[in-house]
Design a protein that fits this description.
The chain has helices at 9-16, 51-59, 77-85, 101-104, and strands spanning 23-27, 38-41, 64-70, 90-93, 110-113, 123-127. With 131 residues, it is α/β, with parallel strands linked by helices. It has one domain: RbsD-like domain (RbsD-like fold, 3-Layer(aba) Sandwich), CATH 3.40.1650. It has a six-stranded mixed β-sheet with strand order 2-5-1-6-3-4, covered by helices on one side. Helix 2 (51-59) runs parallel beside helix 3 (77-85).
């Protein structure tokens, strides 16, 4: 029995499989995800778990080198939550359209779905290396 860290078995397995340059997503509860992309669904009810709580759990587990969020989230709570926790560059792309955020999900290894209901609380993280 683990005494700390990620307890969700599927999430722990997915995180352990990430390598340098791999991308994954942390999403609100409403982000549409294309078929064929694994969704690790942590949502229980609206607001549980919060986007912030999942970011907190991931912070000590991973080395990240950058983040991508929707332009619509710029200067909003989702960007604030990411910047408070991770000292990495954040770039912006439109939420919709060709080469937009939703379209960029196809390159993700998986999506972690939270219960978050704050609009545009979605981020694509790219993994780094600890050396």
């Amino acid at each position: 029995m683990l005494k700390k860290g990620i307890l969700n078995a599927r999430l722990a397995e997915a995180l352990a499989g990430l390598r340098h340059k791999d991308r994954f997503v942390v999403s609100d509860c409403g982000l549409p995800v294309q078929q064929g992309i694994e969704v690790i669904d942590l949502a229980v009810v609206f607001g549980v778990p919060r986007f912030e709580q999942v970011l907190d759990a991931l912070k000590s587990q991973l080395v990240l080198e950058n983040a991508v969020i929707a332009q619509e989230a710029r200067d909003g709570l989702p960007e604030k939550w990411i910047r408070e926790r991770f000292d990495i560059p954040v770039s912006y792309i439109p939420h919709n359209g060709a080469a937009g955020f939703k379209d960029s999900l196809r390159d993700a290894r998986f999506v972690i779905r939270t219960g978050e209901t704050t609009s545009f609380a979605n981020v694509i993280f790219q993994c780094g290396v600890p050396f």
